[in-house]
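Sequence only, no structure available. Ideas?
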Amino acid sequence: MKAIIYSRVSSPSERQNTERQILDLTKYAEISNMEIKKVFSEKISGTTINTERNILIECLEYAKSEEIEIVLFSELSRLGRNILQVQEIIKWFADNKINAYFQKEQLTLLNDEGEVAPTTTILIACLAMVAQIERDNIKFRLNSGRQRAKGKGIKMGRKNGSTETIEVKKEKYPISINLLKKNYKMVDIVAIATSKGEKISLPTVKRLKKLVS
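Reply:
I predicted one. Tokens follow.
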């Protein structure tokens, strides 16, 4: 059976990587007599809309063009943390008769007839909703913590005197600045710059954009 792996982490920093996901799914493929044709890895927030997730789009296009039978995911939340976005991708799999496997949930999308069973549809919707609620809860706790800190007089953000000069930023982020000048999307800039060893986050790219606009 021809298979591909899709892995994702939310942060572009070096602290998060997709190695564990790929290793676990590769072992599963070997046990299940699957042939891994390609691995797709992405560093992007699960809240990003599907049309801006270039690696995911590339993965799906490859699966269709190369007649891949199944796409392997470490867990359902790797598809995203927005229930509507997840359901959109699930529908794509069903429409194209391409199977998907989610390791954490031990869930396979299509049955032996190549259809999505009603119970599977309900389960996926519930799990996607749980992922979205978890994301919303984390966001709420972070905002609540910031408000409590501000109430106690704790200053948030950079320390006084830590702001970098324009010259320092140009020396520190040459790749990102060059890509901004070429009108690349900010999420793509983070991915490309990070892959080339430049440590940068999406908020930093947004700040840099003001310098080159």
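The two ends are 49 Å apart (CA to CA).
Hope that gets you unstuck.
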